[in-house]
Amino acid sequence: MKLPSYITDFDSWKKGFQFYTTINIRFSETDMFGHVNNVSPFIYFEEARINYLNKLGVFGTLDQETEKVPVVGDLQCDFLQQMYFGEQIKLFVKVDYVGKSSIDIHYMAKNGKDDICLTGRGRIVQISSKTGKSEPFNEEQIKILQHKK
Amino acid sequence: MKLPSYITDFDSWKKGFQFYTTINIRFSETDMFGHVNNVSPFIYFEEARINYLNKLGVFGTLDQETEKVPVVGDLQCDFLQQMYFGEQIKLFVKVDYVGKSSIDIHYMAKNGKDDICLTGRGRIVQISSKTGKSEPFNEEQIKILQHKK
Amino acid sequence: MKLPSYITDFDSWKKGFQFYTTINIRFSETDMFGHVNNVSPFIYFEEARINYLNKLGVFGTLDQETEKVPVVGDLQCDFLQQMYFGEQIKLFVKVDYVGKSSIDIHYMAKNGKDDICLTGRGRIVQISSKTGKSEPFNEEQIKILQHKK
Amino acid sequence: MKLPSYITDFDSWKKGFQFYTTINIRFSETDMFGHVNNVSPFIYFEEARINYLNKLGVFGTLDQETEKVPVVGDLQCDFLQQMYFGEQIKLFVKVDYVGKSSIDIHYMAKNGKDDICLTGRGRIVQISSKTGKSEPFNEEQIKILQHKK
Fold first, then answer.
1. Sign of CA dihedral D116, D118, D122, D128
2. pLDDT digits 0-9 by tens, C29-49
3. How far is B23 from chain D, CA to nearest CA, in Å?
4. In CATH, what number is assigned to the domain containing residue D130?
5. Is residue D138 part of a domain?
6. Interface pTM, i.e. ipTM
7. Of B37, B63, B75, which has the smallest distance from its Cβ to C38's Cβ?
8. What 3-state DSSP class applies to C128?
9. Which residue of C has its CA nearest to D37?
10. N or C end of chain B, less CB within 10 A?
11. Residue B65 with chain A: CB contacts under 8 Å
12. How buried is A65 (Cβ within 10 angstroms: 0-12 exposed, 13-18 middle, 19+ buried)?
């Protein structure tokens, strides 16, 4: 298997994950090809990412009053194996890189047979909900993110 | 075919529709049974309803600053025929009843063969986005709604 | 609160539910009004219904090879309270009526404060995936359904 | 703006697009942040990609009987500007690279102000729906793809 550009060493990359969220695939997330639609993994990435970031407590709660909000800068997903309704998916998440006002988050999904069905990554940027501009992390946020890195 | 409770005479009910929106079924809106998932019609109802209400101009634009917003009180859909990806759906909408602070909206979906595949209805309530309480329609709104009834 | 037509006595109706599924609201299931989009409850109904029917074992597994498949005849939902991201929803399901080839399923959703935010119902029809026609329940299915009624 | 890795020269990259699909953003595709949810662009990519591939006629019709089906190998999206409900999006698609049994498809989304709000790419692999293995393109497919490249 050719490695995605965001993975240098697969084994160490896999070992880097501690946190995961269990995803229940919704029937409506399948498509007429009989498998999970290719859009659905990004729904699962979002669910796992929010659970992870809430656990870290690096961003405020996700309500519209918060001034600093995390937004998605980019997203990518590699589809290694088809996913099917009824499978319980473990979606692993980790912070791979911490920048000035953004972080790189990596994803790995495993099915019930412990096969990796998805890998992915994406940049999360902290912006001001007022100005829409990027907002550098404060010391406390950096501390949390570095430690979890 | 047994008529849904919200239809008394089918022919006159059908004749009551003038406005429709053309719906492009998204591939992601199908499911592993090979047809359009049963959740999707409510997506289409919403799209057609918003287009219709915007055309009537009875509610402000749907942004979060508006004080009076239309919310869904209830929704129902009868599935007469399966829908498939690639079909272009005509989704007809009409105001069937005008209340003090709510309206009853009816829906009828036709596929490319002009077969009726869905019928439905739902109550839309005007509430204050501040208080969350229902807000009676003003004279202008009533006029618009009565005329379109 | 005015009762939906499918509920005669609210207290006994509520007491009729034993089974429930815990629903994790996905962020993507909210909308720009800040709450859970009105389409999402039907996603939750489907998830809870499938879990319930699988537990009963009244239909085969939901794969495309099965000859008899359950399809949705109609669906309705009453929105009693707005739902928000972060809430964990208990979605209760019960078989309310058993017909020759169809069943009526009722739904009740409770939020974390144990408030009822949704009630609903819908008819599930057993059809042949080959002919598309309705298929009467066999004795074993009736037994299961009657007992769980 | 830092260019995504899949774009070498932005101007010539933009010029490479001829085909586009107009996307009507669904209200249910927004989220509580008030904008289009970050999952939705992948729904739009899929809709535009299917329209484009159907126009090329390089794959059979998307039904489950087809033996050769196109599946998604990977997907990525860069979010340049937030998208909002009510905007009409022009989603441009082009084949960027043709391999033995896969193609690289690029995406560019423009809003009503003609601003680029999304860029993206993804690999589509032709597989056998029977074996699940990749299926090399035949001469006719190559001809079509090369010509449209």
1. negative
2. 999 989 999 999 999 999 999
3. 9
4. 3.10.129.10
5. yes
6. 0.93
7. B75
8. strand
9. C28
10. N
11. none
12. exposed
For residue B63, pLDDT over 80 is answered with: no
In whole angstroms, give the CA distance from residue B132 to residue C71.
36
Task: Characterize the bridge pairing of strands D68-79 and D116-128.
Answer: antiparallel
pLDDT band at C135 (very low <50, low <70, confident <90, very high): very high
Q: How many structural domains does chain C have?
A: 1
Q: Reading across the β-sheet that carries B116-128, which strands appear in turn?
A: B19-24, B88-98, B102-110, B116-128, B68-79, C68-79, C116-128, C102-110, C88-98, C19-24
Q: Cβ separation of D72 and A79 shorter than 8 Å? A: yes
Q: Given pLDDT bands bounded at 50, 70 and 90, which one contains residue C149? A: low
3-state helix, strand, coil in chain B (%, to 5): 25, 35, 40
Which residue in A28, A50, A85 is closest to C27 by CB distance?
Answer: A50
Spatial distance between the Cα atoms of C7 and C1, rounded to a whole number of angstroms:
12
Q: Going by C-beta distance under 8 Å and a sequence separation of 6 or more, which residues neighbour residue D6?
A: D76, D96, D106, D121
Query: Which bin fits A137, alpha (ψ -120 to 50), beta or left (φ > 0)?
Result: beta
Nearest to D27 among B24, B27, B50 (CB): B50
Please say whether the beta carbons of D45 and D77 come within 8 A. yes
Q: What angle do CA B102, B108, B110 make, to 5 degrees?
A: 160
In a domain, B116, yes or no: yes
Q: Does any domain span residue C2?
A: no
pTM: 0.94
Of the candidates B107, B144, B147, the residue with the CA atom closest to the CA atom of residue B126: B144
Q: What are residue A106's DSSP bridge partners? A: A94, A121
The residues on A that touch D, with CB distances below 8 Å, are 4-5, 32-34, 37-39, 42-43, 46, 62-64, 69, 71-79, 82, 132
* Domain interval for residue A29: 10-148
DSSP SS3 for C55: helix
D85·C37 Cβ contact <8 A:
no
Q: What's the first-to-final CA gap in chain B, in angstroms?
A: 26
A110's CB contacts (< 8 A; 6+ apart) are: A89, A90, A92, A116, A117
Minimal CA–CA distance to A103: which of A89, A128, A124?
A124
User: In Å, how far are B48, B142, C89, C103, D129 from B128, measured between CA atoms?
Assistant: 23, 17, 25, 39, 52
Chain C residues in contact with chain B using a Cβ-Cβ cutoff of 8 Å: 4-5, 32-34, 37-39, 42-43, 46, 62-64, 69, 71-79, 82, 132
B28 contacts in chain D (CB < 8 Å): 43, 46
Q: How far apart are CA C3 and CA B145, in angstroms?
A: 26
Spatial distance between the Cα atoms of B138 and D73, rounded to a whole number of angstroms: 54
Candidates B34, B43, B61; nearest CB to D64: B34
The string over B10-21, giving b where at least 16 C-beta atoms fall within 10 Å of a residue's C-beta and e elsewhere, is eeebeeebeebb
For position B62, what pLDDT does the model report? 52
Tokens 């005479």 locate to B9
Phi-psi region of A86 (alpha: psi -120 to 50; beta: other; left: phi over 0): left
Residue B56 is assigned to a structural domain of this protein: yes
Question: What is the C-alpha separation between C78 and B121, in angstroms, rounded?
Answer: 12
C22, C23, C27: best to mutate for the A interface, most A CBs within 10 A? C27
